[in-house]
Amino acid sequence: MSFDVPDDLTYLESHEWTTTDDPTVRIGITDFAQDELGDVVFVELPAVGDEIEAGSAFGVVESIKAVSDLYAPISGEVTAVNEELFDQPELVNDDPFGDGWMLEVAPSDEAAFDGLLSPDEYRDQIA
Amino acid sequence: MIYDQARYTEGNKHEPLLSEKDDTTVAVDETDSPLPDELTRDELTLPGLSEPEIARHYTRLSQMNWSIDSGPYPLGSCTMKYNPKFTEDVAADPNAAIHPDRSASSAQGNLGVLYGLQEYLATIGGMDAVTLQPPAGAAGEFTGILVAKAYHDHHGNDRSEVIIPASAHGTNFATAAMAGYDVVELPSDEGGRVDLEALKAAVSEETAALMLTNPNTVGLFERDIVEIAETVHEAGGLLYYDGANLNALLGRGRPGDMGFDIMHYNVHKTFATPHGGGGPGAGPVGVVDELSEFLPSPRVRETDDGDYERFDPDHSIGKVHGFAGNWLVLIKAYAYIARLGDEGLADASAKAVLNANYLAEQLEMDVPYGPFHHEFAATAGDRDAADVAKRMLDFGVHPPTTKWPEMVPEAMLTEPTEIENCRTLDQLAEAFNNAYSDTDEAIETAPSRTTASRIDQVSAARNPRLSWQALDE
Question: Got the DSSP string for B167-187?
Fold first, then answer.
């Protein structure tokens, strides 16, 4: 089975994706991650204004199979939360890189993306 | 076997709730209540039902359910043994029902039973000291790891890691994390056992303990256990035995003799007390001598005069449950062990292993890992293990544990235990084979002969219909 890995995103080993836009980035979980989890039934996210820290858990995604922590690709302040997911967690399954996005964050560190995976590196990881 | 589960349906509901059957309202006299008005009620709904109506309600619920008294229940790693009814009589004996705050001098019989059970379990596990206090297997694990932590702290060793094989029960990982340790996951070797080289690479002066289940979760005996124990001990770590699969070893091998320092006993598995469905259980913990002073308090000991008394171990981690633990569960375990005796317990493990191997031989499915002991992980191959399991329900048996452990694709982890005879094992094998070879349509829509058909897990999780809310609708 092949999974969608868009070329314009940056990835974490723990299967989150992030944009690298300025001034805010958008974060979610990958196509591979949503497939592994199965039907997502609940998503717990921080509130706007909360600080998240690179490498630390910022939320929880729950499927009928498992409960998993969500890890932050960068440190920064949450500027937007996809509240649609609270009523429609299935968006994470249906459109993980689009309507299933989770957070928008203003990075606090410009070198923040060092150490994350390129699309090719992530493709190798899930191959 | 022809099987159809009972159905009692009114409208679109199976057997309505008592409060749906009758909503008699009674006035409540609350004039003398010291509580503010907003916290009190003037009337209360109390179903006004006759005794036969209530008896039938609960009987119907039990008929629409499944239990070990209904038929085979080969749920792997859960050891679903039949609960002999004589243990219920023992627990119901009025002499067993005494207040736990009674003085030791007026509760000698009960303390004697607790002491006797501590001694039985110590002998069975090859341990030196036992606490009966933890109220469940997972609580036993947590207690055991807290004891390990107290031991290391007491000796000034600040260790940060617990090593756990990938095939271990999920509770092991949770236990280590809750006790504040970092988890180091150990891969299995090709044969499905602990990879000794990986273990040697993983141990260090940070290793507080290795948690191990033996036989492991696919029923394989860890043959290198002596070398595993030496490796962990040389690094200054402790060896923790998860008692989930002790039923395979009863009277045949003892964790203490293998080098384990701490273990828990699942009395609801190995010693036939009820699993309880989340109700009261017991997960006693045994330790070697040098860890005994850290066990929870109180424990029970015999005095020089032959009396029994409660005491607090010197460096006890404190209480993990009230009083002596769940007494009514413990007394059933004591009764079971006393009734079976040495020969009976050894016979139980022999038959548990024989039954698992006989059943596996009858199955058309592959069993990738072996030779195994009391349980085996068959694979449903290119079929969905959950679908096959649901179809098995239609043949009058409970299915095995599915999709775990993950080292076996589409696993069906099966443990018939010693309680089933050949006729029942054949019936079980037939259910496995019928379901496994059935059409895609049949297994994807199964079960059809049970009270409730296929549960829509996704809708249930996304839009739960809670009974207390439903009643208000």
Answer: TS-HHHHHHHHHTTPEEEEE-
